[in-house]
Amino acid sequence: MKEHSIGKNKIFVLENNPQGEIFKYPLILVHGSWGGHWMWKMYNEFFTEKGFKTYALDLRGHGRSGGELAGATMDSYVNDVDAVVRELVIENPVVVGHSMGGLVTLMYCAVNRSVKAMVSINGSPSAEGQGGGEEVKYPEVYSPVEEGMPTDPMEAMKVFPDIPQEMLMKMKEMLGMESGAARSQRKMGISVPKSSIMAPTLFIGTEKADSVPFGVGIEKSRAMAEHYGGDFLEIKGATHPGILMGEKWMDGAKAIASWLKSLK
C-alpha cells in the first residue's frame, strides 16, 4: 500500500498492490458526491485479494486532497483523474466510478483513448441518458443534508436498510461538502457523445438506488447502458451508497471482477 499526493491540488491517491499474479489492467476508483477514497475500502480489499492493482483517489476539495471545492466543475474532476494517470504513469487503466464519479469516468473515457474499460455504478447520467435537463442554482458548496440525506438515525436506517448501523454512522461522519457548480452542470446535462466512447463499458444499477432523492434510479443506469451500447447489471437489494458499503457490496465487486476478466 502506498500513498501519493499529485499535482498542484495535491490529489490524494491510495495505491494498493496485490501479491502474486497481477491482473493486467489497473483500476482507478472515483468516488461520488461528498465522498472520498474511503468509500472504496471493501472493494479495495476485495480487488487486491483477487490480483487487481487499484488507485483510489480523493477528488479536489474532498477527503485528504487539497484544492478548492467552490467553483470546481465536472471538467475539474476529470482533470484530477488525468493528473493521477499521467503522474503515476498508469497504463491501460480501467476507470470505475460511483454516482457522480460514474459520470466523471465516462467523461474521462471520452477524451482518453488509453482507457481499457469503464465501469459506472449508479452513475450520474450524461445529457444523452438523462432525458432532459433543468437549470438549478446551487450554493458554492452544499451538504448531503441539503440534498435529502436524513438527519434522524431511524430515518437513515429506513432508507438505507442494507447498510449496518455502525457503517451508516461512520459514513455520515465521513461525508463532506460538494461543489454546487458541478451539481448544476449535472442537472443541466453534460453531453458525452456515444461516438467518443471507444472502450467497453459496464453500467451497474441497484434495485433501491432511488431510496433517497440524490440516488440515481436503476432506469437511468439501464438507459445509459442502452444508449452507449454497454453491458448492464442489476444488483438486487442495494441502495445508492449501500452498493459500496452495505451488505450487498460483494455482489457488486464480484460482478465487476467477473466482467473485467472476460475482457480480451
Automatic annotation (TrEMBL):
Domain AB hydrolase-1: start-end pairs: 27-243
SUPFAM superfamilies per UniProt: alpha/beta-Hydrolases (SSF53474)
Domain of life, per lineage: Bacteria
InterPro entries: AB_hydrolase_1 (IPR000073), AB_hydrolase_fold (IPR029058), Carboxylesterase_BioH (IPR050228)
Pfam family, one: Abhydrolase_6
Name of the molecule in the record: AB hydrolase-1 domain-containing protein
Taxonomic placement: Bacteria, Candidatus Campbelliibacteriota
